[in-house]
Amino acid sequence: QVQLVESGGGLVQAGGSLRLSCTASGRTWSLVDMGWFRQAPGKEREFVTSITRYGGRADYADSVKGRFTVSRDNAKNTWYLQMNSLEPEDTAVYYCAARARESTSYNYWGQGTQVTVSS
Question: Measured between alpha carbons, how far is 15 from 44 in angstroms, rounded to an integer?
Fold first, then answer.
């Protein structure tokens, strides 16, 4: 099993920045892909970004390209989401996720952290 713990959410004004962190513990050697998702009130959870553990290939949702950056520190089993130029529409609960080698989808999830962007 793998446990994910997030940190870094909070309240920020529009145009501001926040950095989220997600640290994995347990069977971390099995992880190959890490990502971030978000869910706004009344909306479905949506993909934000992902990064491969080996190679560091990143993908982004169109809505965050150029503003958000995902990175990882494999030695610390931690990945990050740097969010710049935040907009009120970015307000949501952000979840980190991880996919193990034997899985075809994200099978580990963090508890979620609230990000609120005020206008």
Answer: 24
DSSP states of 55-113: T--EEE-TTTTTTEEEEEEGGGTEEEEEE-S--GGG-EEEEEEEEETT-SS--EE---E
Which residues are CB-neighbours of 51 under 8 A, at least 6 positions away?
Answer: 33, 34, 35, 57, 58, 59, 70, 71, 72, 79
CB atoms within 10 A of CB 19: 14
Q: What is the pLDDT of residues 16-65, one digit of tens each?
A: 999 999 999 999 999 999 999 999 999 999 999 999 999 889 999 999 99
| Tokens coding 66 | 């150029």
Specify the DSSP class assigned to residue 30.
Answer: G
Query: Which residue has 């005020």 as its token pair?
Result: 118
